[in-house]
Amino acid sequence: TRTPVVLGVESSCDETGFGIVSEGVLLGQGLASSAAQHADFGGVVPEIAARAHLDAAVPTLRLALADAGVELGDITHVAATSGPGLATAVHVGLAAAKSVAWSLDVPLYGVHHLAGHAAADTLEHGPLPERSIVLIVSGGHTSILAVGDLVRDPIEHLGDTLDDAAGEAFDKVSRLLGLGYPGGPAISRAAAGGDPTAFSFPRAMLRQGDAPYTFSFSGLKTAVARTVETIERAGEAVPVADVAASFEQAVVDVLVTKAVRAVRDRGLDTLVIVGGVAANARLREAARQRCESLGITLRIPPIRLCTDNGAMIAAIGDLLVRSGAEPSGLGIPADPSAVL
Ligand code: KG4
Ligand code: ZN
């Protein structure tokens, strides 16, 4: 049999991603983003995202093939995000993946977007340990998971957010500070040089005895909005850098505290942080310090593998292929609200 060369296709939100992975090694990838087209709306507009995926699909696949130095005919398996995500957006990438798989007569795997986020880390740091805690922080999800083998073992949900996802909080606060979309990078830029202790924003459910692994970020967003309103009503200039830094610090404190708590409660020694918010410098540094002092092995993928991309979908596809999993077949529907 041929060595598997897996094409991954991602289109669940505003990034069109194609990645090519072979036996755990990232050969190359192509990425296009419609983020700029959503900037004026303060969030992703599904119809615009879908059209952008359609425009970008073929050129971005070409980029990925060139980057990997392989021909389309070298692809042995195709994996695509089947959910969760924006329905119209998922449909475009999944349809593209079906076309490629059918034309090459190779198996197609529909994969879960969040499993892809977790698998992204294996491209950088190799196979996950037998058991670890994974903190997934993206625009749509904030979850603490106990995972074993990503393909074979069931994933255990320790906690989720009750309301906004961490990335969503970044996007909403960015909008109310007038910093635009996507909010994460905008807040981080604005926060550079700001004082993270200038405002003491709420850290929801942080105390011992509270739901240990559950998050809530809507109160934080409201607190930031009130603070900004109060300052503006007093006719003063909003100290954007201080507000941004203090907001960031509040998010980071809660994420790191709860994720590390899960690692220790479970008697494990590895924390994996993935998803778009894992690109955040303050989060990366805080997690590094806390894990170092507690002897926890911290794994965070490089920034380009944290935010949505095709390589992570190829990575989970490659794991599925090598574990002998059954392909989904060309009839697989999109599942926009798929749960892990
Ligand atoms: O994983 P991702 O690319 O897409 C989803 O699956 O949702 O995550 C996107 C989220 C957005 O909310 C974005 O604001 C946030 O990740 N993000 C960041 C940073 N870069 C992206 N949040 C904080 N700091 C960043 N540097
Ligand atoms: Zn994502």
From TrEMBL:
EC numbers on record: 2.3.1.234
Enzyme class: transferase
Cofactor binding note: Binds 1 Fe(2+) ion per subunit.
NCBIfam families recorded: gcp_kae1 (TIGR00329), T6A_TsaD_YgjD (TIGR03723)
Residue ranges of every copy of the Gcp-like domain listed in the record: 28-314
Family the entry assigns: Belongs to the KAE1 / TsaD family.
Biological source species: Brachybacterium rhamnosum
InterPro entries assigned to the protein according to its UniProt record, in alphabetical order: ATPase_NBD, Gcp-like_dom, KAE1/TsaD, Peptidase_M22_CS, TsaD
UniProt keyword list: Acyltransferase, Cytoplasm, Iron, Metal-binding, Transferase, tRNA processing
Entry-linked PROSITE patterns: GLYCOPROTEASE
Name this polypeptide is given: tRNA N6-adenosine threonylcarbamoyltransferase
Gene Ontology molecular functions: tRNA N(6)-L-threonylcarbamoyladenine synthase activity
Binding residues annotated for substrate, in chain numbering: I136, V137, S138, G139, G140, D171, G184, N280
Principal location class: cytoplasm
Catalytic activity entry: L-threonylcarbamoyladenylate + adenosine(37) in tRNA = N(6)-L-threonylcarbamoyladenosine(37) in tRNA + AMP + H(+)
Residues reported in the UniProt entry to bind Fe cation: H113, H117, D308
